[in-house]
Amino acid sequence: MASLLLTGATGLVGSRLLPRLVEAGFECRALVRGDVALPAAVTGVRGDLDDPDTLQAAVEGVDAVVHLAALFRTRDEAAIWRANRDGTRNLIAAVKQHAPNARLVMSSTGNVYNPDATRPALETDECSPKTAYGASKVAAEQLLRDSGLTWVVLRLPFVYGEGDGHLASMQALAQQFGLHPAHAYAVAHHRDIAAAVRLALTGVMDGRIVNVADGAPPVTVYEMARLAGKPIEGSAEPLVNPWSGHLDSTLLHELGFTPSVPTVYAAARDGIL
Ligand SMILES: NC(=O)c1ccc[n+]([C@@H]2O[C@H](COP(=O)([O-])OP(=O)(O)OC[C@H]3O[C@@H](n4cnc5c(N)ncnc54)[C@H](OP(=O)(O)O)[C@@H]3O)[C@@H](O)[C@H]2O)c1
Question: Which residues form the NAD-dependent epimerase/dehydratase domain (predicted)?
Answer without folding.
Answer: 5-169
